[in-house]
């Protein structure tokens, strides 16, 4: 999970969502109160669940460790095959806009001639 979270694309997307969430909460008092209540509920459920799940996680630790190692190797290969995973969202959007503009210009030129 931490390896996925550290991918530039994922971390920049999370930052964008977090910024939008905080901005929305600041701008709209009713949404702020609903979000505050939801955050408290999630925190309570998480705390209550953590103590119940811990014995299960301890028993499954060898299997989780093996799956984590396998997933880590897969993510490394995925990162090699998909370089955009190492770019922030803003850069991918910018690159996509440039590519689309270039293709549209090519089509206009072809139609004109």
From TrEMBL:
Coiled-coil positions: none
Main location (coarse class): other
Nuclease in keyword set: no
Record's protein name: PLIN3 protein
PANTHER family documented for this protein: PERILIPIN (PTHR14024), PERILIPIN-RELATED (PTHR14024:SF51)
Gene Ontology cellular-component annotations: cytosol; lipid droplet
Species of origin: Phaetusa simplex (large-billed tern)
Compartment annotation: Lipid droplet
């Amino acid at each position: 999970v931490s390896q996925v979270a550290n991918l530039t694309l994922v971390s920049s997307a999370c930052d964008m969502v977090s910024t939008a969430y905080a901005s929305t909460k600041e701008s709209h008092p009713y949404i702020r109160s609903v979000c505050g209540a939801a955050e408290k509920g999630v925190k309570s459920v998480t705390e209550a669940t953590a103590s119940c799940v811990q014995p299960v996680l301890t028993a499954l630790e060898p299997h989780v460790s093996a799956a984590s190692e396998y997933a880590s190797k897969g993510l490394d290969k995925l990162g090699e095959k998909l370089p955009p995973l190492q770019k922030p969202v803003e850069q991918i959007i910018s690159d996509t806009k440039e590519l689309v503009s270039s293709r549209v210009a090519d089509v206009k030129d072809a139609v004109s001639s």
